[in-house]
Structures are given as structure tokens and as C-alpha cells.
Amino acid sequence: MNDKPLRKLLCVTAHPDDECFGFGGALMLAAEAGFETSVVCFTDGQAATNRGASTSPEELGRMRRAEFAASCAILGVTHYELLDYQDGQLEFANFSETAAKLVERIRSYQPQIVLTFGSDGGMNTHADHTMVSAFTTAAFHWAASPKRFPALGPIHIAQRLFYNTSNFFFPGRPAPLPAPWTVTLDVSRVEQRKFDAFRAHTSQLPLMDKFESYFRKRAGLEVYTLANSPSPGPAVQATDLFVGL
Ligand SMILES: [Zn+2]
Fold first, then answer.
1. The CATH number of the domain where 180 resides is what?
2. 20 to 30 Å CA-CA from 154: which of 116, 187, 212, 218?
3. Is residue 173 part of a domain?
């Protein structure tokens, strides 16, 4: 073993199941590379179209919390947390207070890498995804600033903020306006486990039935944009998130 600090990756999402197809490959490759991984998800998905056998939003929320835990276990996530924000309502949350919750988590967890959605809101352009991108971006910078939220502990300068981005669009849906990618991740060797993790979201299986054949062609590749880091320089293309760390 060397004396490098423990390597950690924090992934910030909006809904249970975002962690699978959005970020599942990156999370599994990080775990394989010796990173501890943490997922913070803002809502328990009570506004989902697919509601399983639930008879109330609260019951669906409880089901989806359990599904999220099962999915994170399959993805090898070390820590996972669901916050108690309302699904579909993140654009109305107080920006500063919400970002501060992430500042607190970044400062205490001290990740080198932070992953979240791009500002387009991902492939389905969900407004919650756009808001999570904005909260996480602010928190990435504010966690590193002694002027911001000094009561939330010593600053932490994370090394890289990555946005998940798209190299294909869903057929028949409004297309996002994705950021260009700087990282092309071949996740084909862990692709099957992305599907296994999604299948742990049993209330959302109708979605899988609808899109599985489409995903099968594409789940082996994830693309990310390096948005920010402490080192200035031109964008370069990479094939992993951790090079040099
Ligand atoms: Zn989502």
C-alpha cells in the first residue's frame, strides 16, 4: 500500500434509479479502481409515472428507498443517502440552503471526484436533473471557498467535477442539448450489472421493458465532461475519470 489518502468519489443524483443508467458504470469502475463511492440522491421518487403496487406517494417513496439501497449494493456503493426533497419540485427549493447541504457533505466526505448531471438535465431533460447539476456545481466551488459557509467546517478542494452527458438521444422524446464529452468510459465489462441494478428498482420495471432493447445497444459506454478542476489547461480526451489521481 502507498500513503496516498483514501480515494473517494461522490455522485449526486435526483431520483432512485438515476444512479444505474446515468452513473452505474462509473461507480462500478471507481469501486474496482479502489475508490470509495458515495451516492447522494435528493428525492425518493414519489412523483414517478410507474408506481408499482403502491397505494400512496408515501408508500411509493418507501418502496423506492428500499430499491435504491438494493441498487447501490449491486453497484458496490460504499455510502448512499436519500435526502427528503420533493420529487419534481427541486426548481422551487431554496438554492443557497440546498447547495449548503452538499457543501456540508463535500467538506465532511472529502471526495477527489464529484459526478452529477449536466445542465441539460440528462437524456430525459428532467428539471430535477438540471437543478441537481446546478446545486452540485455551486457546492463543488463553495466547498472550496473559505468565504462560503464557514460554519460548515474546513474547506475541501475536490479535484474534478464531471457532468454525465449523452452520446445518443431517446427516440420520440425532446432531445437534450448535451455538453461535449471529454471522457469516454468503456463500461462494457460491468454492463450486465447496470441492468441488474436497474432491475432492483422493481417499481420502475415498465420503463425497463420499454427501453431495454434500446439500452442494450448503448449501456457499455458512458460519456462525461470534465467541467472543473484546480489545474488550468485545455480540454483533453481521456478514457478514465481517475487518470493522475
Ligand atoms: Zn432522474
1. 3.40.50.10320
2. 116
3. yes
